[in-house]
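SAMPLE LOG
Freezer: B-3
Tube label: C17
Construct: single chain, 506 aa
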Amino acid sequence: MFFLFLFFRRDLSLTPISTLVLIAIKPMKKKTNFLLILSDEHQKYVSGCYGNAQNVTPSLDALAARGTRFSRAYTTCPICVPARASLATGKYVHEIGNWDNAFPYDGSERSWHHEVRDAGLTVDLIGKLHFRSEEDDNGFSQEHQPLHVVNGIGDPFGCLRQDPPVRFRREGINSAGEGDTTYQQYDVRNADKAIDWLDEHREDEQPWTLFLSLVCPHPPYKVKREYLDLFDPDKLPRPPQWKKENWPTHPHYEYMRKYFDATEQHTNDQIKNLIHAYYGLTRFLDDQIGRVLQQLEALGLDKNTRIIYSTDHGECLSARGLFGKFTHYEESGGVPMILAGPDVPEGSVCDTPVSLLDVHATIYDSLGLDLPIHRNAQSLIELARQPERQRSVFGEYHALNSENGSFLLTDNRFKLIYHANQSPQLFDLSSDPDEINDLSENIKYKDTLDSMIVCLREICDPEAIDAQAKADQKALINRFGGEAEVRERGFFENSPVPGESPKFKS
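STRUCTURE (predicted):
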């Protein structure tokens, strides 16, 4: 489309006749910024917009009200480093070999941030990356206050998968409650930095991308009193199968519970206190997000900025007798996913399955970049307009305290959890959203199980991938001096924030 502008000019020294000037111009393309907000270990069910009645996430609920909430969103891997490497590259974990928390992303594989930066656009990071090092070219225009893995190494202890050392975690779980932590302090600084950053870039001519990565509600399970006081611990819901008599007896989870020091159930009060602290941490997280979104609105940038909120994985919170992440059940493998901004359906719920793999396609779409995407990735902007599209998504886990690799394939109704060299699990999420009834041995669902396994094998060979992951992990252990040296180094519960030293345990 072209516009004609008429300019009349009288040049008194030459002629009194007006001159007609025709100028043809193309219309300006409306710029759309992108804000990606990622938390760490946020269980989707501890969110108002996902059905929680405790007013735990008012800021995220407001974001969902002006955008689209994806009810069936999943991580590509329920542990930090692999999930974040997959998010960066737009590839599955087995395609990039970032198996666990000792295989951090190092910038050698092209990421969506490389592509955006190299297209001449600003793409900045604030907060937790969990990559190898700030010294690597991770693809950002600038990294602000980045949190990377410990000493560029991470956690080789987790590569010990055959009869690994027990990770004694009861002290941290049993002491859940009131307290300030470096994680909370870090997230306040990250939100502060994001607020300043938005002000600095309010007049940018080109669309920008900001990746704000917060670390809460990741453990430690401690939070300031003001947040604990917002919730009555006796009214907070318990997750599925939290009682020992209801724990699933599949060998995969029995193995996990054994090496996570979780073979005996915690007391009711201990679980209640932990859930209480987690709700407080989640509300704290929501407040930090709310501060950033308020600044976005105050600057008038909300009108031309698309926003994604999600997390790297969920949190079990005592479901199935487990704490932390590590499983493909909904509380751990499922994640919250909210999209808002220009041209996004408002107040909408999309039941089409999506995953973190779709984020890079969404960013390219929003910025108008014609770049290659993963064969199984799609823009969430498009999917938001297809709320019941038939689709499958995939995830996998090869990390600490798993005897064998596990794989997720879920469509609009069924979920397959496939365990390499062990029996699979099958759940009908339409009738059994808590995943209580395993249908894998029900003859009525044999065809469904068989067809989903065939679809899984079209993505990868689970047994071959399991063997490759274990071989790579063994090789890494040898590079660090062998199993004895790795055991001697020990492990740490939580990656330290910038300027903090890790606290190793043996």
